[in-house]
Amino acid sequence: MLVLFAAAAGAQTPVSGRRVRRLIIHNATVIDGNGTPASGPKDIVIENNTIADVIALDPVSLGRGARAGAAADAVIDATGKYVLPGLINAHAHLQEERGGKPQPIEYELDIWLACGITTIRDVGSDMKRAMELRRLSAEGQIAAPRIFVYPMFGRPKTPLEATAHVKDLKAAGADGIKILGIDRDTMQAMEAEAHELGLRVAHHVGVEETNAWDDIHFGTTSIEHWYGIPDAAIEAGVQNFPASYNYNNETDRFRYAGHLWREANPERLTKVLQAMVAAHVAWDPTLDIYEASRDLQRAQTQPWFAELLHPTLEEYFKPNPANHGSYFIGWTSTDETFWKENYRIWMDALLQFDRLGGLIGMGDDAGFIYQMYGFGLIRGMELHQEAGFHPLKIIQQATGNNARILGQEDHLGRVRAGWNADLIVVNGNPLENLKVLYPTGVDEIRDGKAVHTGGVEWTIKDGIPYHVPELVSKVKEMVSQARLAKK
Fold first, then answer.
1. What's the CA gap between 463 and 22, in Å, rounded?
2. Residues 6 or more apart in contact with residue 402 via CB below 8 angstroms
3. Quick count: other Cβ atoms within 10 Å of Cβ 225?
4. Which domains are present in the chain?
5. Which of 119, 285, 313, 433 has the fewest other C-beta atoms within 10 Å?
6. What backbone torsions phi and psi does residue 374 show, to the nearest 5 degrees?
7. pLDDT tens-digit profile of 311-367?
8. Under-50 pLDDT residues of the chain
9. Which residues pair with 178 in a beta bridge?
10. Exposed, middle or buried: residue 429 (CB in 10 Å: 0-12, 13-18, 19+)?
């Protein structure tokens, strides 16, 4: 090991934002992304944008590792650190404004990278702009995760219009489609055409004519959030809404969404989950995005808000009927109690779905309801642990499973030779404490003293290493300047 370290130490540390021909991540403990236990120490050899090799540093391979280190153009010393596949955010929104006020796209992109997110699935933003950002990211012209564009489908009036619209989106270069508030006949037509053209479909079901049974019958790729699943298991066929309920009143909508899971019949729910598994319908629950509904005070006082919350986003989060997701007007302790129960049943359903063989992914839907970009995904990982999932499974859900949902599992979501060089180097053990993934780090007791540690140190996307402390400093300065300009 000493011979290897000496050889590797001769190479320079990479420059943030600059790809080198050959980069070595040295002496790492590796979590692969396929659910298997951590192993190491290992050297990871990156050539341009590809993982060329993963080398176990044992006596047999020591000489090979030393030669690899000596030939490196740059080396990241990962001694005492963990390396994971880059995190994938399967439910993201590219946002350059909130509530009609401008917000720099660099703010969002830098935070995603700082949180270890190397790929996003954009499910509903300006398609033309999203595709331009996708191109710039793919060409390495901007610091950004890899982007898959799933434009919002809208509501065509007829099945023929739906079919034509799918063709138009495919011709325009969409990677997939997001549907919301769709009628059954148009959903059936658009899904049939989407399958024919090789486009995947993400469905935010909402309270609408369709539910999870339609996703099962028509072949939806993933159900987003959780609407549609308990709805399909209600014996009465519709939730017991009060006569005054108005879905477009978001306080109404989210208040009674907190009653939904308790109305689902458990036996019927099991049948729905079994049918989803049989039809290969994945589930991206976005557990983080509704957490404010069960604990508003926690959501409003997250510690990273102090230095990293952009004033445009801060203003958008405040209760305001004009802003989607800013519905906390007259929110009560009773509402929070219902939502706490809602989470418990929802989490139990997720565990059951997993045990039945279902594919669970992860996304954060940030930019709404007090969730910041990137931070929301890591909070979602913590909530998956609260639901009962092992950290190895959680990391798989945020990496390998999300790659499967995207249809990219043959080159994303693993620490494996031949895969894209999307990796993160973490100061700490996320299997012990998922909070070490937050770029703001954690406080720990070591040798009787309080120390600040943790955080992703390097995010490597497509072979380009980004130094996370530099990204965080840039975001802090961006926020500070925006706050000064607002005064």
1. 9
2. 88, 89, 90, 119, 121, 361, 362, 363, 413
3. 22
4. 2-85+415-465 (2.30.40.10), 88-406 (3.20.20.140)
5. 433
6. 80, -55
7. 999 999 999 999 999 999 999 999 999 999 999 999 999 999 999 999 999 999 999
8. 1-8, 61-68
9. 152, 202
10. middle
- For the entire predicted model, the pTM comes to 0.95
Q: What's the rounded Cα separation, in Å, for the pair 404 and 331?
A: 38
> CA 445, CA 187: separation in Å to the nearest integer?
55
pLDDT of residue 486: 84
**Residues contacting 397, CB < 8 A, separation 6+:** 360, 361, 362, 384, 389
- 89 closest CA partner among 294, 367, 291: 367
